[in-house]
Amino acid sequence: MLDMLHARELMVDRQVARRGVRDSRVLGAMREVPREVFVPDGLQEFAYEDSPLPIEAGQTISQPYIVAAMLEAAKIRPGDKVLEVGAGSGYAAAVAGRIAGQVYAIERHDALAKLAAGRMRRLGYDNVSLRTGDGTRGWPDAAPFDAIIVSAGGPQVPEALKTQLAIGGRLVAPVGETRNAQRLVRVTRQGEAHFHQDDLGAVTFVPLIGEQGWADENQPVRRPAEPRSFREPSPELSIPRLIAEAAEPLPDFDDSAFGRLFDRFAGARVVLLGEASHGTSEFYRARAAITRHLIEHHGFNIVAVEADWPDAASLDRYVRNRPDPVHAEPPFRRFPFWMWRNTDVEAFIEWLWSWNGARDAEQRVGFYGLDLYNLNASIRAVLDYLDQVDPAAADIARQRYGCLTPWAKEPQAYGRMALNKGYALCEAGVVQTLTDMLDRRLDYVRQDGERFLDATQNARLVKDAEAYYRAMYYGAAESWNLRDTHMFETLCALLDANPGAKAVVWAHNSHVGDASKTEMGLVRDELNIGQLCRERFGAQTALIGMGAHAGTVACTSDWDAPMEVKRINPSRPDSYERLAHDSKVARFLLDLREGVHPVLRQALMRQRLERFIGVIYRPETERWSHYSQCCLPQQFDAYVWFDETRAVTPLPTQQRPGVDDTYPFGL
């Protein structure tokens, strides 16, 4: 459950203050007003995202930064009388009301005005008055106003509003010759007939409809989904052509030429292969083809994936012909099982088993999980190992882990409980268990060194999972950073345990692409594996993202809901994906490294939207739940594109006839 108060603080700090809004009154007001109250039911979880959201009557609630920037530009002070034109949900009026003495807000949609008025009453904001009417005519009975905010774009500043400004008053409004693009201007009244106008930059707002605005047409007006920040738009007509010229078409997955395209990254110590969704067959097959080539021709010997360590360990034992421990469970039975229990992963695992079977034990390639969700299996693995090498330590570990046992099947509940109690009930015990194991490393390795890495990694997972499930109740960034740091440290532990090792990582684009070059890091203070690898391994890191325009995907609508196959919406016109689609090249590799395609790289440097589909896919809220601002050439070293894709095929949950008992996907 999202901590709304904490999310609001993060929104103000990262989306507003960090972008240059300095007015302490505006920042304080935005910290006070609960934005989730002003969005429709079902969208509250997106209330503090860095984007506009749809509201009733086909309108939008503006991006938080836009609201803050306009209020700061209006220089609202305590005691001021303020008019807002285009009240919409009432959010901007509510924020203004926390600063000004009185706010008058006009909304032309009666249903919106009534909803906004009801919200003000529930919140006790009795200095905000709302009415239905033509905002371009202002509110003459309440004039003059110290500040006027116009939250819709008109062909010019309405004369009625200018005349209702007090001497010294400020009016902030978007103005443009078309309905779809404007300049934000600030008009200051310096005398009865003397006005000074400042240009604050390019924006895009919904049309200002009214007597002194645009005509109310019967046909729907094309409404941009997002007010843009104060930047000049740049022409993009030539970018698809530049992509087409630079694109290297991809052959069939089974063609050896597919893998050879990635020889340029063979010198890296870590190659990270992304995916734009967790349920797309082409992404899995592409990663498998690239990985096979890197193993066969360039000595890569670690495959590390965005999967839980104990589950992946079962596949690792299979591909390296090692026995299962006594309490080993069949892997990947938990939600979302289709991520790794699918026909594409099965084909790769069978290839890896065959490859390893022709080699000595020390030359075999390992398959490892980097993630930390399977708390129960990791506890079991630690205890099994200690039972073998140090029974007394196993008894102590059982007592320590006993604190977590009631929560093992629902660790999120532990996080909620720990937050309510105000302290970490189980932290000391799980940390000490890992510390004790590392302190006794030499003794344990002498008894069973082969399993020591697995056992200590499981102990590390338990420690990090305990911290992760506490952090998830403090906000997305803290828990995200703990999780990705854990995955990075797990990768480093694998590399350190095998000097000279080279690893291929399979993970989502959100983990692989350098977070510091995207909205994740620039706005939300999130880091990821790709960023950490670049910082540690430098030029020996290759970050390869993948994307698609349309097709189908295996996913769910909610966490722990049944898997379904959904059709993916065509990519948005303002996205990187649409630029790739418009190149008319169906499958390609695009080298984004500096100096390879300099003209294209420069053209792609301006931040655009990029789509991220994880386990959950909600087409109806796609802009807010699945798109984020990124800089593709800085995020990735290369980009793999499939215009049309299809969903992965999950494996059956029962062992098929004729399959050996040790086969890891049998249940």
Detail the topology: elements first, then pairings.
Layout (H helix, E strand, L loop, with lengths): L3 H13 L7 H9 L20 E2 L5 E2 L2 H10 L7 E5 L5 H7 L4 E6 L2 H14 L4 E5 L12 E6 L8 H5 L1 E11 L6 E8 L5 E9 L35 H8 L1 E2 L6 H5 L9 E4 L7 H18 L3 E7 H11 L23 H15 L8 E6 L3 H15 L1 H11 L9 H11 L5 H13 L1 H8 L3 H20 L4 H21 L6 E4 L2 H4 L6 H4 L6 H9 L3 E15 L8 E5 L7 H7 L4 E5 L6 H6 L4 E4 L10 H5 E4 L1 H4 L2 E8 L22
Parallel strand pairs: 3-4, 3-6, 4-5, 6-7, 11-14, 11-15, 12-13, 12-14, 15-20
Antiparallel strand pairs: 1-2, 7-8, 8-9, 10-17, 15-16, 17-20, 18-19
Annotated CATH homologous superfamily of the largest domain: EreA-like (biosynthetic domain)
Task: Give the overall pLDDT as a whole number.
Answer: 85
Shape-level CATH architecture of the largest domain = 3-Layer(aba) Sandwich
In CATH, what is the class of the largest domain? Alpha Beta
- Kindly state the number of beta strands: 20
CATH topology of the largest domain: EreA/ChaN-like  fold
The coarse overall form would be elongated
Work out the strand percent: 15-25%
Q: What radius of gyration results from the CA coordinates?
A: 28 Å
Q: Roughly how much helix do the residues carry, as a percent range?
A: 25-40%
Q: Distance between the terminal alpha carbons, to the nearest Å?
A: 33 Å
The biggest sheet, with number of strands, parallel, antiparallel or mixed sense and barrel status, is: 9 strands, mixed
Structural category is: alpha/beta
Instruction: List the quaternary state of the chains.
Output: single chain
Low-confidence stretches: 218-237, 414-423, 655-662
How many separate domains make up the residues?
3
The number of helical runs is 25
